[in-house]
Amino acid sequence: MEKHGSSPKRSPSLIAETLKSIFTVLVVAFAVATLYTAAKPIGLFSGEFSARLAEAVKSKETPDEGWPTATPRPKPSIGIVVGHWGDNKDPGAVCPDGLTELSINQEVATLLQQRLIAAGFGVDMLKEFDENLAGYQALALISIHADSCTYINDAATGFKVAESRYNPRPERTARMVACLRNRYAKATGLSEHQSITADMTDYHAFDEISEETPAVIIEIGFMNLDRQILTQNQALIAKGIADGVLCYTRNESITNDQ
Fold first, then answer.
1. DSSP character for 3?
2. Contacts of 98 (CB under 8 A, 6+ apart)
3. What are residue 77's DSSP bridge partners?
4. E strands present in 68-153
5. Which of 101, 194, 205, 238 could covalently link to 111 via disulfide, CB atoms 3.0 to 4.6 Å apart?
6. CA nearest 163: which of 113, 210, 195, 200?
7. What is the pLDDT of residues 150-181, one digit of tens each?
8. Whether the Cβ atoms of residue 182 and residue 243 lie closer than 8 Å to each other
């Protein structure tokens, strides 16, 4: 019979359940504290840890001194021979009023150079008897000249384009000639003058450059009857030549409506 006023004894199972509950609470509390710490922003970390993290990020952004860098690809080159430039023996045609073929050639060549550079090419400006012509290699070579200042007849107007008489690159050069004839006529409105001379087909530079370089010579107009366009609209002359060169290098179609 139970005596009143005495404390009841706790059972072993009740004690075990209590300890288990306390342990569970501690585990949950530890897990929550760990997650909270991991989720804290960088600004809440200790100063030492933040400094190390910033240094690590910086080291990833800054490449090692020995890290290889890309080498820029060289631009494809086109050579321009400025007719009579640097040629003391033959300075080119000279008009009675002092207008020189050389001055026209230089102006047109400079404007052509600007257009070709803008189109993404490297341009080599070469003198008439430039030492760099020996074995010269490029996508193309074009020599710029102007025709006589002397009045010949009313038909002495227009341009001429010629390739080497002994052409070792007939297919490519023939295509470049065709491109120049077509695009130059379209841009300038000048017609082609059918008077190709031996001085053009036997032009000295043809024999000096590499056989892999297609080359042509162009007489851009007569300094007499074509004087106005040659002296007042060299930009149009340069455009016609540039269009012909781009027609060739880009393998454009050559048709009458271009």
1. P
2. none
3. 122
4. 77-82, 122-126, 140-147
5. 238
6. 200
7. 999 999 999 999 999 887 778 899 999 999 99
8. no
Q: Within its chain, how far is the Cα of 54 from the centroid?
A: 39
**Rg value, the chain, Cα:** 41
Closest by CA to 77, choosing from 237, 213, 239, is 213
Q: Coil, strand, or helix at residue 70?
A: coil
Stated as kind and residue range, the H or E segment containing 245 is helix 234-249
Helix or strand run (H / E) with residue 220: strand 215-222
Q: What is the DSSP letter of 216?
A: E
For residue 225 the two structure tokens come to: 């009857």
What are the structure tokens assigned to 28, written together? Answer: 């949950």
| Joined tokens for residue 179 | 């491109």
Burial class (CB in 10 A: 0-12, 13-18, 19+), 194: exposed
**Per-residue buried b or exposed e for 25-62, using 16+ beta carbons within 10 Å of the residue's own CB:** eeeeeeeeeeeeeeeeeeeeeeeeeeeeeeeeeeeeee
Whole-number Cα distances in Å, 42 to 36, 45, 54, 102: 13, 5, 10, 71
Using 50 as the pLDDT threshold, list the residues of the chain that sit under it. Answer: 1-10, 32, 35-46, 59-61, 257-258
Cα 258 from Cα 254, distance rounded (Å): 7
Cα separation, 139 vs 119, whole angstroms:
14
